[in-house]
Write a structure and sequence with these properties.
It catalyses: D-threo-isocitrate = glyoxylate + succinate. GO terms for molecular function: isocitrate lyase activity; metal ion binding. This is Isocitrate lyase. Keywords: Lyase, Magnesium, Metal-binding. By secondary structure, the protein is of the alpha/beta class. It has four domains: about 1-30, no CATH class; about 35-280 and about 325-460, TIM Barrel (Alpha-Beta Barrel), CATH 3.20.20; about 290-320, no CATH class; about 470-515, no CATH class. About 50% of the residues lie in helices and about 10% in strands. The protein has an eight-stranded parallel sheet. It is globular.
Length: about 525
């Protein structure tokens, strides 16, 4: 509701309740405006609509792809969105990513853990709630500055300025954006997946990403030892997430089906199959084994399956896991993706071992032959050595074109001596264009970096510690942090305000009038900035 209309509506309500005469309608309307979302479900419904519109726009124009950065704390997510609005004027097509890796590494009460679903599952929904708490506070903080300016304009009798500020308040763009939230492999069976999905949705998640690994054997997508499950097991969890969305009234909730099959060489189960060529039979056809010619060749404890009319003894490890045939990863990825899209998933995630547009496009084009509007969420992972990968891609392309590459040593291309070379510069250009190229050529709707702020926190801390505890002393903080905050217009330089001090002062005045004891007076050192 527009601010002026809400003031009138509240004034009418106050007249009906004469004992509320200490309340000013402007204050109540202001507090309402600064708190647009009352529940996590309100957020999930609002952001699901945004994602669906963005997906439809991408289908019309692949330049309209979306992006996000992984955030491990509410404050980091808040500052990211404030920065986006400051630099680009809008949050459109920018999301947040909630990384299971960072939850494990940074949010578990057990301490730092590897990405193997050993952390508390409730830490995931807890982080979603925290992120949205900080994004809602960003709304309140930004609007509070507008309302303070409005009050000053009104007190000064500047009606034109007041009208402009009311327009800004009424058209304020929220910092609340979609979160793509990682539920790993579901943290248990389908019922466990459903229960956690409900918590995540109630916390505000409009989009849940789930992977086809075995829940109790889950590994980071960029580590060895990944074990996938038959399609029927995975689809039961997709159904569990969909039903959680529907139960809670988020009818357009988004499911991202992730396949780790490209790098997964193992399966825990042999799929159930009823007839040749069905889904279970297709899954089993990838299992490696040796042909059994006669019954005597079957040893005690052996498992035997039928592949293309032949009896086969699958290769079984001491762990009880079965091995896939080498070189079948891409075929399994394509089957996984088609199956997921045909059974309730909205978006795909293909975990790859390198950032290569051609490799991704080759798989996506095969998927699109069956599902033409297939779209990817793609992990622009810090696990890739981006510099080395793209320099080697340029090297290989030049070599194939017949160019002289004798000045470059392919295995040593990470070396700083190549930074200012033609190859190094072109590789950087390819890196800069990777998202645009991938969205145009490989069906990538959403680009994310899973754990960038894990790395930025470590890097900035290293730089500060090196200087502060060294010869620079206090200058390391002043020149390396505070001076840059001031000159780049970063709001945290007034950290008291960013944490809500001014909002609290205004509330004190709303509650107690002239008797309010406020923190933001002349002796507040924040006034130095």
């Amino acid at each position: 509701m527009p601010y002026a209309k809400d003031v009138d509506a509240i004034a009418s309500l106050l007249k009906q309740n004469p004992t509320w005469n200490a309340i000013k309608p402007e204050h109540a309307a202001r507090m309402r405006a600064q708190n647009k979302f009352k529940t996590g479900l309100d957020i999930a419904k609002f952001t699901a609509k945004i994602m669906r519109e963005d997906m439809a726009n991408y289908d019309k124009d692949t330049a309209q792809y979306t992006q996000s950065l992984g955030c491990w704390h509410g404050f980091i997510g808040q500052q990211k969105l404030l920065s986006i609005k400051k630099h680009f004027g809008t949050t459109k097509r920018r999301y947040l990513y909630l990384s299971g890796w960072m939850v494990a590494a940074l949010r578990s009460e057990f301490g730092p853990l590897p990405d193997q679903s050993m952390h508390e599952k409730t830490a995931v929904s807890g982080l979603i709630e925290e992120l949205y708490t900080f994004l809602r506070q960003a709304d309140a903080w930004e609007l509070n500055h507008l309302f303070r300016a409005l009050e000053e304009a009104q007190n000064a009798g500047d009606n034109a300025k007041a009208d402009e500020l009311i327009k800004q308040i009424d058209n304020h763009e929220t910092h609340v954006v979609p979160i793509i939230a990682d539920i790993d492999a579901g943290f248990g069976n389908a019922e466990a997946t459903y229960l956690l999905a409900k918590q995540m949705i109630e916390a505000g998640a409009c989009c849940i990403q789930i992977e086809n690994q075995v829940s109790d054997e889950k590994q980071c997508g960029h580590q060895d030892g990944k074990v996938t499950v038959p399609h029927a097991d995975f689809l039961s969890k997709i159904n569990a997430v969909r039903l959680a969305f529907l139960e809670l009234g988020v009818d357009d909730g988004v499911i991202v089906a992730r396949t780790d099959s490209l790098g997964a060489g193992l399966t825990q189960k042999i799929a159930v199959t009823e007839e040749p060529g069905d889904l279970g039979d297709q899954y089993n056809s990838f299992i490696d084994g040796e042909v059994i010619e006669k019954a005597e060749d079957i040893n005690n404890g052996d498992v035997v399956i039928k592949q293309k009319g032949q009896l086969v003894r699958p290769k079984r490890l001491a762990s009880g896991l079965f091995q896939f045939k080498p070189g079948t990863g891409e075929d399994r990825v394509v089957l996984d993706c088609i199956t997921s899209l045909q059974n309730g998933a909205d978006l795909l995630w293909i975990e790859t071992e390198k950032p290569h547009v051609g490799q991704i496009a080759a798989m996506v084009n095969r998927i699109k032959e069956v599902v033409p509007d297939a779209k990817l969420v793609y992990n622009n992972s810090p696990s890739f050595n981006w510099t080395l990968n793209f320099r080697q891609q340029v090297f290989d392309a030049w070599k194939e074109e017949g160019k002289d590459v004798s000045a470059y040593e392919r295995a040593d291309l990470m070396n700083a001596k190549y930074d200012e070379t033609d190859l190094g510069k072109l590789a950087d250009e390819w890196t800069a264009n990777f998202q645009r190229d991938g969205s145009r050529e490989a069906g990538i709707f959403h680009h994310l970096i899973t754990l960038p702020t894990y790395h930025t926190a470590a890097l900035s801390t290293d730089n500060l510690a090196k200087g502060y505890f060294g010869d620079e002393g206090m200058l390391a903080y002043v020149a390396g942090v505070q001076r840059k905050e001031i000159r780049q217009g970063i709001a945290t330089v007034k950290h008291q305000d960013m944490a809500g001090s001014n909002i609290g002062d205004d509330h004190k005045e709303f509650f107690a009038g002239d008797a309010a004891l406020k923190a933001g007076g002349k002796d507040n050192t924040m006034n130095q900035f």
